[in-house]
Design goal:
Length: 279
């Protein structure tokens, strides 16, 4: 008679101290990542009367309000670009970033039931939450291309390559800041209440309703510490090909985004060991 096989017990324990992001493990759970993204997209438009029209109405109505207040009343200069298309081109990457950031911040608390039942890389949750607004960006871009045709703006080949890079850049920034805030929101729920105010202030600190050229040259490097400055200026230049390509602003903002992404991931990994106990 053969001896019975010994039972094997697998114990999954959180790592001690600071640890790097395990991209190999994230890739191994790519199916879960895709499911969470698809669920967020489908839930967003399920049982909605207007459906995908919301993705068009939000930037359109905001653009009209900005055009009246900042374009007609305040008469903010836009470097020769008609204000409607100027503001709309700045709104698209900003709305993608702000919606991604807000969803990422609240994602860990929203997924509390999943976090307490099974193991998976927790970083998947805020990362998946940042991708659902990408659908809105793609839908709203159709209006932008129609406006470009109306105002006779034709992007050049040497600038158009920057467009997907700016979208990726906005996503990296949202993941970085969202990793910080989603981890903090698990322990301090005030973060979730504060985020709409932070997003509102951040928008006016970014070149959405005004061009970055209005900032005095001596403060350009300080203004570039806002990572969305480079994203919006690069996105607008890639499509409208107006003015000089982003230089110092582009480089400094990109470096800040990388720092936020790396430190956000490290901080999230540091704090995730007790998420299930606190959330």
């Amino acid at each position: 008679m053969s001896a019975e096989s010994p039972e094997v017990e697998l114990l999954i324990a959180p790592p001690e101290g600071w640890c790097a992001i395990d991209f190999k493990e994230l890739w191994a759970y790519r199916e879960l990542f895709g499911f969470l993204v698809w669920r967020d997209v489908s839930v967003r438009y399920k049982q909605s009367v207007l459906g995908a029209l919301w993705a068009l109405l939000t930037p359109l109505i905001t653009m009209v309000i900005f055009t009246i207040i900042f374009g007609k009343v305040a008469k903010i200069p836009t470097d020769g670009i008609p204000y409607p298309i100027f503001s709309y081109a700045g709104l698209l990457p900003w709305l993608f970033f702000s919606q991604s950031l807000q969803k990422a911040t609240l994602s860990m608390v929203a997924e509390r039931n999943l976090l307490t039942k099974i193991y998976f890389p927790r970083l998947i949750v805020p990362m998946a939450a940042t991708l659902a607004p990408l659908v809105d960006l793609l839908i709203a871009s159709s209006v932008l291309f129609a406006m470009m045709f109306y105002y006779h703006f034709v992007p050049t080949v040497h600038s158009l390559y920057l467009l997907p890079l700016c979208v990726l850049w906005a996503w990296v920034t949202a993941v970085g800041v969202g990793s910080w805030l989603s981890a903090l929101n698990v322990y301090f729920r005030d973060v979730g209440q504060l985020i709409p105010f932070v997003v509102q202030v951040w928008m006016y600190a970014s070149p959405v309703v005004y061009p970055a050229s209005l900032v005095p040259p001596g403060f350009q490097w300080l203004y570039a510490l806002n990572p969305m400055t480079g994203v919006i200026e690069g996105f607008r230049w890639a499509l409208l090909s107006h003015g000089n390509p982003p230089g110092l602003i582009f480089f400094v903002s990109a470096m800040v985004s990388v720092v936020l992404f790396v430190t956000g991931g490290l901080f999230f990994k540091r704090m995730e060991r007790s998420f299930a106990d606190v959330v």
